[in-house]
Amino acid sequence: MRFHLSEINKIEKGILQRQFEASPFAKGYTTKTNPTILKIFDFDSTLFLSPLLSSNIWHKSLINAVIKENLLGPGWWRDYRSLELGPFDQLEEKAWDGYWNEDVVSEARKAIADPNSLTVMLTGRRYHPFYSIVYPILKSKGLFFDAIGLRPDPEDKEPDNSGLMYNVMPNVFQTTMSFKSSFIVNLLANVPSLQNIIMWDDRAAHIIAFSKYLEDMTKEDIIVGGEMIPVKAVRPKYNPEWEYAVVNNIIDSHNKSIERYFQHKSENPDINYTESEEVWEQSTIVNNGSLATWKDQYKIAPIKTSIVVNLEKDAVGVLKNCFELFYEKEITQGRKVAQWEMVGGEGNIYFGVHVFLGQCSFDEDIPFGGLGSSVDVKVISRSQGCPDHGMLLKVLLKASQDEEYGPEEYILPLWHKPSKYLSLNEANYMWCELEVEHQLVLCGEMQYGYLLGVETLPRPDQ
User: What are the Swiss Army Knife RNA repair protein HAD domain coordinates in residue numbering (predicted)?
Assistant: First the structure.
């Protein structure tokens, strides 16, 4: 974290100053003259409900590979496809309806209208390729900030490669925190009337770090006071079709770049290629257009992750019919959910398809008769329905031919948020025991549970 201009090197300072001089405030496009409060809004999951991949679909290895820079593409936070949410013109016309945290938008509007507040949208997303996406998103909502700060790695307005932007050159700012704190320091130097800072952010690590940062700045008399306002991160509505499409697109473009790499290699046998080299796209090879560090091609494939009892199709519907009234009634009695969150935010989805026995361990026997065996499932209690955790059941299991149920209780998720799939057992639930006469008995089959990962394809040169 930076506190003083002396901690910012010449290159960084030049970039930050060019960003400031390009801002509406510096150009005099606003009527604000001597603002005293700097109000800073993060973009992803603070102002805007940016999508992420759901843990009930994708294996963590695939999610990590998609997020990491230069593995299966530029990396999620450098890849414009992470914000390609549909036909651009249609989204723009409707101001990306359903993708906003309207509570934070309301605070931003008030700040923009306040003559004493200098407002900034500050994000770790790179200037390229995201300025051309983020600015229209903000404009469509009527959010005209006094300054917009996107991480300038790269800074160029017209990069050589107009498509996917890979991390070719060393970063000017090594971290988002370094960029954001430097941006703030440079802004304070340019607008000496600023005395107080208020920041809105959703990420726990950033909230902690910037709370300490503002506290230290106050102690050093750099500012009079600072406040960090934590924002509850809300994902947009569950959209598995979009997730499948974007992941397939990322893998397909990666595979094509690898194919071009090996084609270029075969056509230029005199070039000395090594396994440590990055993969170059033929169309940008003269510009050092780095594409990937993985030289393999991939396809999406299921990965065994858990042991489950898959319920018969009829049982899935029976469970929904039995517990839906309880669920619908009880979620209205819990945490008050804002209208915008109900309309656009990720909600609880009904699944009710399997009993979760635990993570898959391939060196142990499958219980209750083994894989493919018929299992009886007795429902003994349910959790109270709530907006954050949905509703789960506790069940007992036995092999169909056995007389007695085992003593161990297992979880059968009914309604839950897809993003919470891997942490269902960690939440605190209020349990309601079912009377014996209301304890349903269902039929299922022992199976593996799967999530989607990637499988390596044969190399084009093999």
Answer: 50-256
